[in-house]
Design a protein that fits this description.
146 residues; alpha+beta; Aspartate Aminotransferase, domain 1; 3-stranded antiparallel sheet
């Protein structure tokens, strides 16, 4: 199987500049809060992935199909409709159901957690979710901290 590169790659775009350009003001404030939360939880500096994802760390995957590549360990994107958190192992492991029940108003995708605004959720529970995802990823995959 021919290898193809991931659509989403780490970039050299400055995270501070990206956050400063977010509109409206409330979305920018929520994004700045998430930068601080993810930095505190991960212990890592943020890196832009693609044009709109703030990512932390990196892991290498290798699927049975032969496809392999590198992606961020965790991150978020302040999209127009929602704040999207990327919890890479998804939400089907460990105590995730309990944490999600305590989180507040949200929707789920496979590895995406959709939140309209941070005021809708319990940030301490979000920290638990991010931490659980990191623990899982670090146990299962080869990871890099930069």
């Amino acid at each position: 199987m021919a290898k193809s590169e991931n659509k989403t790659q780490a970039t050299k775009v400055d995270v501070v500049d990206f956050i400063a350009a977010i509109e409206p003001d409330k979305k920018r404030e929520d994004a700045a809060t998430l930068v601080a939360l993810f930095e505190r939880v991960t212990g890592l500096k943020p890196v832009m992935w693609g044009p709109a994802i703030v990512g932390y760390g990196r892991y290498h995957y290798n699927y049975d199909s032969g496809r392999e590549g590198d992606l961020m360990l965790t991150g978020f994107s302040p999209r127009k409709a929602n704040l999207v958190m990327y919890i890479m192992p998804g939400y089907q492991f460990g105590e995730m159901a309990d944490m999600l029940a305590r989180l507040g108003k949200h929707k789920l995708g496979k590895s995406c957690l959709y939140i309209k605004k941070l005021a809708d959720i319990d940030l301490a529970v979000l920290e638990e979710i991010v931490t659980a995802g990191l623990v899982y990823m670090r146990e299962k995959y080869e990871t890099w901290e930069a």
